[in-house]
Amino acid sequence: MTIFSRLIPVAVSAFSLQLGLASLFVPRAEDRFYDLSGAAGFLTTTLVSIYYPFVRSRLPFLGASNRALPLSHVRLAPRQLLLTAAIIIWTGRLGAFLAQRAFRAGGDSRFDEIKHNKLKFTCAWIAQATWVFVVGLPVYLSNSVPPSAHPPLRALDCVSLAVVAASFALEVTADRQKSAWRHARDSKKHNQNFITAGLWGWSRHPNYVGEVGIWTGMWGLAALSGALPWAAVLAATASPLGTYFLIRHVSGVPPLERAGEKKFGDDPKWKEYRRSVPVFFPWGVSIYFD
User: Fold this and answer.
1) Which residues contact 31 (CB under 8 A, 6 or more apart)?
2) Number of domains in the chain
3) Within the chain, how many helices (H) and strands (E) appear?
4) What residues form the membrane-spanning segments (predicted)?
5) Residue 78 and residue 47 in contact, taking contact as beta carbons nearer than 8 Å
6) pTM for this structure?
7) What is the CA radius of gyration of the chain?
């Protein structure tokens, strides 16, 4: 079985879960559970990438062998443990944060125009399944390789892990700063229309910069070890590149920038903020996709 064929159960689990949840929530035009469902998708697909060989060995309709694998057979190399722990921590934190925000707001504004259209809303759930599968590729591919094929952790792995940790801290700090700013605004402690302090004075979307950094580091930890074949290394680049492209040019930055321009376009402070603070990378770097 090639490394890519081992991803089939992962893909099946990702799409099955989201379509199953869509069958519950699309008829009700319920969007509050969307991000929580995405978090559940990452958790289940990660578990499938680890435990599928054990499950397959015990279920006849999956081609069980004569000798079922014991649960003790399921072991992970240190690199796999780090990647698995990182994705669980990341998805648990982000899923809880986004779900709490959606429930507090009574819904998700991204779906106001489509959630009453069953076809379009279903497509959003399919898109989420695709996102779960593609973004998690570094973890799923790493878990598809036998633990014995993973070399010991090296300095480059430590660098990649540091990128993950620093980017996670950036994302969490940015989210907390904005939450504190909103709470202060709701408590009438200030009357600012938009946040410009803290990390938001370095980038107009620092939380998204952290998100891209997390998956860049995850790719490095999984792909630069030498455990994956080059085809898998290249396939795994879809995670950080896809995350960047989606956030920067599709569903992250563009709608927020349009909303800000619509609300504050005539405000001199907004114009100065847009002029002086980079839209994404705080150092003002422009790369091919910008």
Assistant:
1) 25, 102, 107, 108, 110, 111, 115, 121
2) 1
3) 11, 0
4) 6-26, 33-54, 81-99, 119-141
5) no
6) 0.87
7) 21
Judge whether residue 290 has pLDDT over 50.
Answer: no
Structural domain includes residue 49: yes
Residue 8 lies in a domain: yes
Q: Nearest-CA neighbor of 207 among 246, 240, 253, 150?
A: 253
Taking 60 as the threshold, does the pLDDT of residue 191 lie above it? yes
Looking at residue 61, its pLDDT comes to 47
Burial 85-109 (b: 16+ CB within 10 A, else e): ebbbebbeebbebbbeebeeeeebe
Q: What's the token pair of residue 170?
A: 């950036």
Q: Which of 65, 46, 40 is nearest to 55 (CA)?
A: 65
What's the domain range around 271? 3-58+75-276
Residue 287 belongs to a domain: no
CA distance 252 to 130: 16
